[in-house]
Design brief:
Elements lengths: L2 H33 L2 H33 L4 H36 L5 H9 L2 H16 L3 H24 L6 H22 L12 H25 L1 H9 L2 H37 L3 H37 L8 H7 L2 H17 L3 H26 L1 H23 L7 H25 L1
Length: 443
């Protein structure tokens, strides 16, 4: 596949996956805040925050290592790598399952949310199924099969959205417990779809090789730590608000957080398709190409996130009214502060991706740990001081500090220039305009 074709095809399906997933989740959120009370919705937010942390951490344990080692290998070696990754994923998932069941009641008490314990236990039942779903998704990325990745992704989000939409349209009562079981069913359906999609290149053997177990484990342990801490940092505002204030404040923060998820679409999409290319370039010792790739992909992210930042600053109140209603207007100042992440996240995400790609996952993990530690301290102080907006101030300050440090560290290994990243972002606009004009002209 040519380089241009790779970026166009993989970029299209990755953006489609992120976009459809976001759209269904966003509209589902708008309906759910009108079905559930603010307190129950806050409890649901705590559940999906905790489960997202666990899922992201499990993915990270095998994802980057499996992709890095499997690219360019023959089928016999790929079989050994897949077997090692699947065994490690199974072991970690079983450990998480036990810990989650044991921690369900203490977490419910910590966040003043009695219903949280039961819905966490319900989620634990689906974890063994997710072993295969996670493995299949990573395998699709390693094989550059982003079309399959898109189909496997929406096979979970679409059915779950339909449950919420039908409940809203027909005014059916939807309890937290029923919602948790519907989510499990959607995960099971998505696992069947992903298994079908990878049926031609899912290959394992009976016995895992110690060599590949060690290789995937030692690489994955750093990415696991990075993803776990990164997701804990992303959920920090909700956890501290739940512990220090109430689930209602968690629901307020989530209404703004849902808007900020728009930023994750271009950031995560571009990061997911750039990592295999960055890892491949590093293996080929193409340092100059790596620097250019970093500047180009970061510029692509910024060209999409900067307009979003401006839009949120200008229309925060109208956005909250539209998506959640007057009951959630307290989230308006929170959204305006969090909007600054649209400027910071591209630097933070892409510098972390490239540190992993050049074999420096430990540095990335340490930096993300720093974000969590001083982010927790700052958020705790600000929440105590000014309440709900304090959580946003603490998180934005922490992410900014880490993004700056990671970017400076990466400059020691790659020939990257800050202003070239901004120039790439500016140059994207005429490129987009020309592309649109060409398509219009063809019609």
């Amino acid at each position: 596949m040519s380089d241009k074709k790779y970026w166009l095809k993989s970029g299209f399906f990755t953006m489609m996956h992120r976009g459809v997933d976001f759209l269904l989740g966003f509209v589902g959120f708008m309906l759910l805040v009108r079905i559930l009370s603010p307190e129950d919705f806050g409890v649901w937010v705590l559940l999906i925050t905790i489960t997202a942390i666990l899922d992201m951490a499990r993915n990270g344990f095998i994802q980057n290592g499996m992709i890095k080692f499997i690219v360019g290998k023959n089928s016999a070696v790929q079989r050994k790598i897949q077997t090692a990754a699947l065994l490690l994923n199974t072991s970690l998932t079983l450990l998480i399952l036990v810990l989650l069941v044991l921690a369900a009641s203490p977490l419910a008490r910590l966040f003043h949310a009695p219903k949280l314990a039961e819905i966490l236990t319900i989620y634990a039942w689906v974890l063994p199924v997710l072993v295969f779903h996670t493995h299949n998704l990573v395998l699709m990325q390693a094989r550059y099969d982003f079309k399959a990745y898109f189909l496997a992704g929406i096979s979970k989000s679409l059915p779950f959205f339909l449950v919420i939409a039908l409940s809203y349209l027909f005014k059916q009562e939807l309890s937290l417990y029923a919602l948790a079981w519907y989510q499990n069913a959607a995960f099971a359906l998505a696992t069947l779809m992903s298994a079908y999609q990878v049926r031609t290149y899912f290959r394992v053997q009976w016995k895992a090789k110690n060599y590949w177990l060690a290789k995937v484990f030692h690489f994955g342990k750093y990415v696991f730590g990075t993803n776990l801490i990164s997701m804990l940092t992303n959920g920090l505002d909700k956890f501290l608000l739940g512990a220090l204030l109430s689930p209602v404040q968690v629901a307020m923060a989530n209404s703004a957080g849902r808007v900020m998820n728009v930023v994750e679409i271009p950031v995560n999409s571009i990061a997911s398709i750039s990592y295999p290319k960055a890892a491949e370039a590093h293996d080929s010792k193409q340092t100059a190409s790596l620097g250019t790739l970093y500047e180009k992909t970061l510029g692509m992210m910024l060209s999409l996130t900067v307009p979003f930042w401006l839009f949120c600053l200008l229309f925060a109140q109208q956005i909250i009214l539209l998506i959640a209603g007057e009951a959630y207007l307290e989230a308006v100042p929170f959204l305006r502060i969090m909007a600054f992440l649209a400027l910071i996240k591209p630097f933070d995400r892409q510098s972390g991706v490239f540190l992993d790609a050049i074999g420096k996952p430990f540095i990335n993990m340490i930096m993300v740990l720093g974000t969590f530690l001083y982010g927790a301290g700052l958020s705790w102080l600000f929440i105590r001081w000014i309440g709900l907006p304090g959580a946003a101030y603490g998180l934005v300050t922490a992410v900014f500090c880490t993004a700056l440090i990671k970017h400076l560290i990466l400059r020691k290994y790659l020939p990257i220039r800050f202003f070239h990243c901004l120039l790439q972002a500016v140059n994207m606009y005429p490129s987009m305009l020309r592309s649109i004009q060409e398509k219009v002209a063809k019609r």
